[in-house]
């Protein structure tokens, strides 16, 4: 007998009728005869929906029949729809109607030609590459010149091509910009070549496609929308396909979405029963799929199939997406809905989030100051030229440069000469803005990421999860975090749920153990036999280990005649049936082709594994199976349970899936005794509001179950509610995750009304989720409370120690969770975030006025001043905490209802002031957007570095809002990982990431930026001092090649190596002393004071470099270019020795980089001065040999280095001995202790860091 799913064909009845009968009015609850041998069952209230359309509906039906039918087709059964109507013309075909709908697409099954002739549908060819051979050059240049610095250097190159402004060779002036552009283009081209290769491999794959009545191989890039594709086990899905059938008779298929969203657990997908029974090779399948337009939401899909006039709703459980892999299913068949770039995987193929680090923002600020300084010194050159020309006008005719006597007048007047000199100075001093810094920072960040990824201290072997660095431009921000926002479940906890305790009918069953019948052989065998189920000729039993309460086991095995036994039965029925878990049989097949093969060869009984997306549901289903209520089989239309050894089949009429608004899940099932029940589980705040308050409101099944007075029943019902609420509170205090379980027996009238609206909602193409949600409210009311569950989610290893270290480092840790307040508080104590000496400020308000009053009263009680008062009395002290006069640390606990009002514009300032005055903040029952709102509030108000860490899709908004987003690769999928900047497997790895790598990265890059500003500025200032002796002309003593190679070759390698490898302290010291992390929060490695001090030191060193050789050779016949050669060598040696003074960790790579750069400079001078093939090179020919042969040059080089670095050396000695920082103290302790663990050194005393 063929099973007809009421969900799929709503309002269909098996009552026979004449084939020629037509629809007529009927009494209430009487069948309506329909053409085609079927009957429709409607009430008069239902028919009223068809006969009482509004005037607007009548007008629309008369003038726009297509849109009218689209809007009301789900209200009118096919029998009525086929008859003529006096109110409207309903003869328009569904195909023409759908073609006119701009928000949907019609796909003709197994008819790609007809499908593609109407719509502009892309093929299945994918192209993830950015460039082609023709577009590479223009597009790559266009992208590169989005950087303002590149435009600046392009303007410099253009100015240098003007003959009157050319300071050095036109070709040489192109080299710096060309070098950067070509290097970046090579990198981009290599990356894109890899994408081209990957695309080619992807497009050349083959799959079986129905062609000429048989499935034949076809390349992926030739597959079209509308074609039917057949996939075998372990094959990749080539496009988005709506499932039509599978090797499983029920139409179930299993897929792995690892390539799509990173989730490794298997997902179940279903084919409609109407299509699962058909085989395309034996007979054609005709029909149409009306679906929404392509979009990037991989978790939603709205469509319906039209098969011979019957509309079948299709949702996300009926589609398998491109990139998934078929598992545990011999074959599947589907129709292509989206192909190529329109697939959801391709629409979601975007790179990591792009963020700008705070150091880079500061660097842009200092770059602005350098531009101002550059303009000032160029103005000096311009005004100096004007002044010199004005005072030497009488000498200009005899100066060869101006050629006034030769008739070729190059004199442009005083103003013209000043402007020319100004522009020429900009060209010659252009390297004041270090173009190489951009490339150097990218290389350094790449090197830092390489070592972070290879750090085995952040590798989680249990889940085989390495560290992931998804954003390469914010490495240094890891060393400056001040606020850390953390999710709880899966982030602080393991998210591996274990059923811990049950509350059934007001009784708390909390004495659970793994084997409640230990020692009783007979009871153990009886329990094992109850779990075992015969499927065909094989025996299967659930592969579960759960804690069982002996009293509950005995109650469930007692006769089914008491109210307590019936409640316990329905309680377990909800746990076993109200879920999305799919049982998978794991036994080695004879062919050995299936993947999940976990059967023990020593056992003759196969095992049932429960596959699901939610760890909570897996724990609940496993617990029900352990108590004897095993989920054996699930299809789209039925659920098979082994209830204490008896096989029972429940017909699924409809499912209302869990969502963040309803916070509950319900399923409507038809029981074996033909009664229809609603099974519900969900959050206590959601389910308790719809539980019947008296027994009079509860379903008739319980009222008739016992013969007691209604007042007694009301009292018992009230006691059950109160006891259950008490149990929920106790569970939450123990840190357990809680759910409430309820049920309801539906009347025939309720079922009919619900079916009608559910059929309409489930086939809607627009706002289907909202319509289904509204339909659920029709039956989700006056429920019978069955009990509650307590599921344990243990803390991850090392969480308390990590949080203690974070707080010791000066980082404020906030918990933002959707769990109950009591659960969040319990976890806060268990992870050492809350302590017994803290004063808790609890805010649970539902109104704006109440929330405002609670916040203001809390501030007044604990003496918390407003921000403006704090600034007024702080006298310029940087104080980010508004901690009041309380003698005890404060902890703020606030719920989501209060945050609705507290995050408003009127109250957010008061909330912020209260929150930052507290040492701990816990926000419970918060929605995802509220998490992002809290992060945004602190980020805007405090201007401090924020870090958010989470593991689930509800944490994505928070992760993206924070300055640094960190994801835990856990049990809740990969949505958080895909939105994050960094990802790893355990919360405890934050210590290694922040204290070690974060500190190192910040110290390295902070120094690197300052050093790059210094090395370029000191070189420019040497050129600047020279113009005072050349009549302010742009004449330079350096060769063009030296001007170009200085920042690109002579001095770039050492700073890159230092930025990657240097480290001030060992990782052991940084982990043992979290207070050292405060140096990054205080911006000790890079700040404006250090910048201006470096610039002053730069001015002194540039004067020394210029004047020491100048005075030594003052009375000599040295030529211009020999002096310039000496200046180049002196500045390169000086900046490298300066760098060597500041290096804290030496290795052979550092030695090679620094001293190799000095040697490379000498070799460069030798090579360039040995060339004579061009007239421009003759003036520099053999210069370096003459300089090297003069003892005075070596004397000037030594004196330059000593005199220039003497002030810097003295200042460092004084500061480190009189005002040492924590870093310097720790470093000295490391040196004294022989680089062993510094904690053993009693002499090491760090400056005190106040806990947040």
Automatic annotation (TrEMBL):
<dbReference type="InterPro" id="IPR023298">
    <property type="entry name" value="ATPase_P-typ_TM_dom_sf"/>
</dbReference>
<keyword id="KW-0067">ATP-binding</keyword>
<keyword id="KW-0479">Metal-binding</keyword>
<dbReference type="InterPro" id="IPR023214">
    <property type="entry name" value="HAD_sf"/>
</dbReference>
<dbReference type="InterPro" id="IPR006539">
    <property type="entry name" value="P-type_ATPase_IV"/>
</dbReference>
<dbReference type="Pfam" id="PF13246">
    <property type="entry name" value="Cation_ATPase"/>
</dbReference>
<feature type="transmembrane region" description="Helical">
    <location>
        <begin position="368"/>
        <end position="389"/>
    </location>
</feature>
<dbReference type="Pfam" id="PF08282">
    <property type="entry name" value="Hydrolase_3"/>
</dbReference>
<protein>
    <recommendedName>
        <fullName>Phospholipid-transporting ATPase</fullName>
        <ecNumber>7.6.2.1</ecNumber>
    </recommendedName>
</protein>
<comment type="similarity">
    <text>Belongs to the cation transport ATPase (P-type) (TC 3.A.3) family. Type IV subfamily.</text>
</comment>
<dbReference type="Pfam" id="PF16209">
    <property type="entry name" value="PhoLip_ATPase_N"/>
</dbReference>
<dbReference type="InterPro" id="IPR018303">
    <property type="entry name" value="ATPase_P-typ_P_site"/>
</dbReference>
<feature type="transmembrane region" description="Helical">
    <location>
        <begin position="1193"/>
        <end position="1211"/>
    </location>
</feature>
<feature type="domain" description="P-type ATPase N-terminal">
    <location>
        <begin position="107"/>
        <end position="172"/>
    </location>
</feature>
<dbReference type="InterPro" id="IPR001757">
    <property type="entry name" value="P_typ_ATPase"/>
</dbReference>
<keyword id="KW-0812">Transmembrane</keyword>
<dbReference type="InterPro" id="IPR032630">
    <property type="entry name" value="P_typ_ATPase_c"/>
</dbReference>
<feature type="transmembrane region" description="Helical">
    <location>
        <begin position="1118"/>
        <end position="1140"/>
    </location>
</feature>
<keyword id="KW-1133">Transmembrane helix</keyword>
<feature type="transmembrane region" description="Helical">
    <location>
        <begin position="1013"/>
        <end position="1031"/>
    </location>
</feature>
<feature type="transmembrane region" description="Helical">
    <location>
        <begin position="1152"/>
        <end position="1173"/>
    </location>
</feature>
<feature type="transmembrane region" description="Helical">
    <location>
        <begin position="1090"/>
        <end position="1112"/>
    </location>
</feature>
<feature type="domain" description="P-type ATPase C-terminal">
    <location>
        <begin position="977"/>
        <end position="1221"/>
    </location>
</feature>
<dbReference type="InterPro" id="IPR023299">
    <property type="entry name" value="ATPase_P-typ_cyto_dom_N"/>
</dbReference>
<dbReference type="InterPro" id="IPR036412">
    <property type="entry name" value="HAD-like_sf"/>
</dbReference>
<feature type="transmembrane region" description="Helical">
    <location>
        <begin position="1043"/>
        <end position="1061"/>
    </location>
</feature>
<keyword id="KW-0547">Nucleotide-binding</keyword>
<feature type="transmembrane region" description="Helical">
    <location>
        <begin position="149"/>
        <end position="168"/>
    </location>
</feature>
<dbReference type="Pfam" id="PF16212">
    <property type="entry name" value="PhoLip_ATPase_C"/>
</dbReference>
<dbReference type="InterPro" id="IPR008250">
    <property type="entry name" value="ATPase_P-typ_transduc_dom_A_sf"/>
</dbReference>
<keyword id="KW-1278">Translocase</keyword>
<dbReference type="InterPro" id="IPR044492">
    <property type="entry name" value="P_typ_ATPase_HD_dom"/>
</dbReference>
<feature type="transmembrane region" description="Helical">
    <location>
        <begin position="418"/>
        <end position="439"/>
    </location>
</feature>
<keyword id="KW-0472">Membrane</keyword>
<feature type="region of interest" description="Disordered">
    <location>
        <begin position="1"/>
        <end position="28"/>
    </location>
</feature>
<keyword id="KW-0460">Magnesium</keyword>
<dbReference type="InterPro" id="IPR032631">
    <property type="entry name" value="P-type_ATPase_N"/>
</dbReference>
